[in-house]
Amino acid sequence: MSLHRSTAWPLTWVSVALIVYATLHPLSGWHLPPAGSFSWILPKQMFEIPSDLMANLLGYMPLGCVLCVAQLRTDRGALPAALITVAACSALSYTLELIQFTLPGRVPSITDWALNSLGAAWGVLAAVTAHALGLVDWWHRWRERLFIPQAGWGLALLWVWPLGLLFPPPLPLGEGQLWPPLRLQLVEWTTGTPWETWFLPADDPLSLFVPQAWHEAATSPSLMTGGRDALIVALGLLAPMVVACALARPRALRLLLLAGAVAVALVGTTFSTALNYGPEHAFTWISMPTIIGLLVGSLAGGLLLDRSRTTAALVGLLVLGGLVWMIHQVPPDPYYAQTLMAWENGRFIRFHGLARWFGLLWPFAAFAWLFTRVLGRAA
Question: Which residue spans within 168-315 are E strands per DSSP?
């Protein structure tokens, strides 16, 4: 059975990336462990927080489940797949615990390793049970009928798209504004080196955070600005739609996925706004440009129902390219910097920090997948 057919493999790599990020956050302050502090035998901590224990237990369950399913989909037996998965997850957890010796504020613990391994075993149990009941084979048969064989990464993109909505973008559904945080990171990395001037503005260092063009756009709104905002919302809604139409076979399934994209966009954005600004402000993201953008995006998505998958992929490249370019012309919300600090330094740092990166990187990952689909059809 070809590996590229299984969605479990892309989801496995996504799960590994999430775990590595959450375990080693903030990925800075690396140092050699003080003499005598490093030990191959993980220490037992005197004080352990119940919420952290539960997070360690539950955090590895999805990885254990999807990795075991991926093993089963390569025609391995249930026992070898289960043993390989538990061993791999346990080894990953042990390695990350050892790396925590080199990070300030992170404490390696044998309890964390044991709970991570147990959580992975629970995920394996769920996967083996589903396989024994025939649910994995049932899903495979239906997937063969409903989606193209190379849909694995595309389906993974659709699964993770809602996560990017949880961190509020500059505009509703306006994901992909990668350059500002990337530029800040490059400035930090090159501070005190000859390359610092490549990224730090020579005239006004504050323009690194709010460029003058953005300030002017924010302080002098116009009809053109409203049209731009509506177009960005429309492109942001179209982005998952083109991915769905590039991998789905039946027209009815396309219609269901397009309707689902609209529903997820509405619910995800409302939930994000309520979580960030408070429940009483849950619907403040709705404005006339937003409504127009949602309508335009929905109508444009409907035009893709009867188009070929290659056409949908080509349109998707234009949509995602336009979204990324236009979102970089948008000034940050006046409260965006404050929001950034609250979400990154709050108690849900591991989750919301990841949500931000999902939103920043999702359009680029979708563009890459659609590009491979176009190349594959042209070959």
Answer: none
